[in-house]
Design a protein that fits this description.
The protein has 279 residues and is an alpha/beta fold. Helices cover 35% and strands 23% of the residues. Helix 3 (125-142) packs across helix 4. The chain is globular and about 60 Å long.
Length: 279
Amino acid sequence: MRLPLLLILLILLGLLGLLGLLQGCAYHLSENNFLRADPRAWPVSEVDPSYRIEAISLRQSDGNLSHGLYLSRPDAKGTILYLPGGGNTVDTHGVMRLWQYRQMGYNAYVFDRRGYGHTPGTPTIARLVSDATEAYDFVHARTRGPLILHGFSLGSTLAAEIVRERTPDILVIEGGTPSAREYIDAKVPWFARPFVRIKLAPPLQAIEPGMAIRDYPGPLLIAVGENDRDTIPQLARRLYERARSGRKELLVVPEAGHYALGSEKGFKAYVDFLDRHLQ
């Protein structure tokens, strides 16, 4: 979940105002600062045709139609439901992940979130959590064998909410944060904290993945890039500390940025983690 450029500019302007007026600045963040619709179509025909991949859709409880892709192979080791990050769509980032899962030998599902890519609608935190939970139930009903839930960045927040009431065989949190408050605080330089106040709208205040995954009992991989400047490694460590699973692992991928498991070293560690916990 990346901090919008506009907000960064506002913070910088606040700092300039501080230098000139020695007054504090208050900013109010709403869901719209993080959830910006970006409708576009993804060309299924351009996806690598050397393995079976098909367009798939899911009718949500309110009637909205979520569109995505399903990757499958007869001898798959298991199935992965991938929840992408905030600006990612199936035709850009999602297809890259499907290619990765193909190399790993897994079936996989990925959907465009509401208001993104090929899925219409207006996103809100509550609606995205509901959509993601319904997608999990949809995939779970179609799956035979192990089911892995993999959330990236904003998607990791949705994955955490799912495991409040669902129990995938394995949970993978990549580029996550223990709470929206801690994520925002990490963005403000230490010297500005006494003067810059950022107030979160109630739906953002409720985002607490650290609490959501606390009682998840299964294998848990929390991954972050060593050079991630968005969800910094310190946030991943806090998230790891709050999880109670006896089978949790913290992976700080050397030299990697925000897309930690998409790097060569992250990919190898991801494969190793799944292989060890699915034996």
